[in-house]
Every structure is written in structure tokens, then in C-alpha cells.
């Protein structure tokens, strides 16, 4: 081969390497054991996202009711967030955060309630320090935030999601992001996720760390975005998590298992469908449409390589009507069909 040929070959190899990314790293032994125990690959499990329980005693009672509803439906997982504005009086000046101990106590109680009910916990910390602060100061404050929560919750949490759909909005400022995502942004996000994982596992070895990618509008463009996103971030994660919002499109619903399977096979990593749902409202979708489309989506995902499917949400909140129950707990017309379609964790 000529010098030119060898040079071209080298350039091609470098280009492929740059595009391919570094891929996922093997989880440590404790995390691998936890994944095998709570997210076995043999069958798809299910659960629901519910409202954050840290606001007040009313929210904690609602959480308790939600846990019982999930158990009655045959779900085995509950997904919920802790919100900084609930558990922090303020981020503080200097290095001192001001925590709301009563709110933290409610989070503690919620975790215990779910554990006593036999549910696994998918925990979310989506919030971020002040958007006008960057660099070392930002990292230090986020590290402290994760550290206090991890020290408090320990390994009672099974999966810990850091940030929320940071492929669509900036993890710090929440501003809409350009696509494809800038490499500098992905590098910064991967560094933060690596820091989060180390901080959480220092306090709670074996906790499964992830972040999620959005799933709307669902289609080829979104699937490609998943792959680019996790190509950069997978080394910092134990499992991958995505949203899935095919709405009522029968073709998109039928394609969901293949999209999940390609993602899992591409990275050799378990995939969680962290959100799947359909909103009901005047001008969007009816309760009957929710029941029909969401139950079909769940049936399809039960035959995928997903290890866990989480319905968004159990009941309506004050901002949206994604729940399969109304805000006061009444079932919608499609609730029974959706519950019947939940993957039951058996192969």
C-alpha cells in the first residue's frame, strides 16, 4: 500500500473512531449485581411515575395512595422526583446549602413506604444549581446536592436518574438546545454525569445511575438522536433510559420494540422506557383513545428487550392530564385496558 493509501486508511479509522464514541463501561461488581437482581433481562417489568411526595403531608398521603394503586395494578416500580425547591430553603451562599428537614423527612418516609410495599424505586433529581453559575462552582454545588441526598437515601433507591431529557433542553439553563447537540455540551454533560455517579455510589454503592432522552415526536429522527446522545454519555451510565410517545399512530406503536431493541443491542446495555403515556384533554386525545393506544403500546413493549416500562403518569396533576386516573383518583374509561396491558415481569 502506498503512503497515501496508508494515510487515507488512518484518517478513515480516526473518523470512524470519533463517530463511534467510547461505548459503555462495565459497571462495578455491586452495580452489576443490582442490575441482575432488580432489572433482569429475561422479562419486562412495569410501574408508574407519580407526583413528588416532598411538598407537604398531603402530598405524602397521595404518594401512599399511589403506591397502593400501583401494587393493585400489578406494577413493581414507582418513579418519582425530589425537587430542589421542595427540599431546599435555598442553595445558600458560599458552600452552605439550607435544607428543609421536614421535606427531607417526607422523602425518607416515601422511600420507606414504597419499600415496605415491595416496590422498586426509580428516583429522579432533575433540578440544577443557578443557571448563571458555571464551571467549578456549579460542579461543587451539584456534587454537594447529590451527596446529601445519596447519604440520606442510601441503597434504598434502585435507579437514580440524573437530570431530565437533557437532550432537548440544557441541563443547567433549561433553554432549548440546537440539534445535533454541540460536542462541548455533550462533553460537559458526560463529565457531570460521571461526577454524579461517583458521588452517589460513594454513599450508596450499587445504585444504578442513568439519565434519559426524550421520546417525542417519536420516529427515525428521534431514534438517531438517542444513539448520538448515548454514544457520548454511555460511559457515564449503568443503563440507558428513553421516553416513548407514539401517541395514537399505529405504525409508530408497532415500531417501538425494534427501536428499543436496536438501542440495547447497539450499546450492549439494558434499556428502560422511562416514560410512555398519552394526554387526555379537549383538543388532544380522549380517554378511550388513551386506553386503546397506550394499552397497545404496552403490549408491544412487553415483547421488546426493554427491562422496565414506566407509564407516565398514574394520575393527573395540576399541569397536565397524562394520568390513567383523574387527579382525585377516579379511573378513566381506558384505565382497565391499560392496567391489563402492563408487562407483568414474567417471561
Describe the structure.
The protein is α/β, with parallel strands linked by helices. It has a single domain (27-341), classed as Glycosidases (TIM Barrel), CATH 3.20.20. The chain has eleven helices and eleven strands. It has helices at 3-20, 29-38, 57-73, 84-87, 101-116, 135-153, 183-203, 220-233, 250-267, 287-301, 335-341, and strands at residues 45-49, 77-81, 88-90, 98-99, 120-125, 159-162, 208-210, 212-213, 240-244, 271-276, 308-311. A nine-stranded parallel beta sheet has the order 7-6-5-2-1-11-10-9-8. Helix 7 (183-203) links the parallel strand 6 and strand 7. Helix 6 (135-153) runs parallel beside helix 7, helix 8 (220-233) runs parallel beside helix 9 (250-267) and helix 9 (250-267) packs parallel to helix 10 (287-301). The longest helix is centred in the middle third of the chain and has 21 residues, at 183-203. It is globular, with a radius of gyration of 20 Å.
Classify the secondary structure makeup into a structural class.
Answer: alpha/beta
User: What composes the largest sheet?
Assistant: 9 strands, parallel
Residue stretches low in confidence (pLDDT < 50, at least 5 long) are 1-21
Q: Supply the number of structural domains.
A: 1
DSSP strand tally: 11
Cα shape: globular
Per CATH, the superfamily is Glycosidases
Order of helices and strands: HHEHEHEEHEHEHEEHEHEHEH
**Global Rg:** 20 Å
Organism: Brevibacterium luteolum
Domain Asl1-like glycosyl hydrolase catalytic: 194-310
Keywords: Signal
Pfam families: Glyco_hydro_cc
